[in-house]
Design a protein that fits this description.
Layout lengths: L9 H13 L3 H8 L3 H8 L7 H11 L3 H14 L3 H5 L7
Helix pairs in contact: 2-3, 4-5
C-alpha cells in the first residue's frame, strides 16, 4: 500500500511561510487580527482549526481569500481522516 503524505495543517503554513515573511510573532499577528493571542498560538501549534472568522481575518491581512485558509483546513481535515472506518460504510443506492 502506498504511504500517504503527511497532511499539512494551516498553522504550519502560517508559522513557516507567513509569519517570517511578514516579520510577525503570534502576539503581533493576534493584535493585527483583533483576536485573542491564544487563538493564534493554538493554530500555529496545530492544536486548533482555522474557522471562517479567522480565515476572513487572515485573508484581509495577508491579501489572500478566506477560501484559501478554509481550503487548507478542509484539505488537512480530509487527509487526517481514518479512512479504514469510512471504507466499512456500505454505499446506498437512491
Amino acid at each position: 500500500m502506498a504511504r500517504r503524505p503527511r497532511p499539512v495543517h494551516p498553522g504550519e503554513i502560517l508559522r513557516e511561510d507567513f509569519l517570517p515573511d511578514y516579520g510577525l510573532t503570534a502576539g503581533s499577528l493576534a493584535k493585527a487580527l483583533l483576536v485573542p493571542r491564544d487563538r493564534i498560538e493554538k493554530i500555529i501549534r496545530e492544536k486548533r482549526a482555522v474557522t471562517a472568522d479567522t480565515a476572513a481575518r487572515l485573508g484581509r491581512l495577508f491579501g489572500t481569500t478566506p477560501q484559501f485558509w478554509l481550503n487548507l483546513q478542509a484539505n488537512y481535515d480530509l487527509a487526517s481522516l481514518a479512512v479504514e472506518d469510512i471504507d466499512k460504510i456500505e454505499p446506498r443506492a437512491a
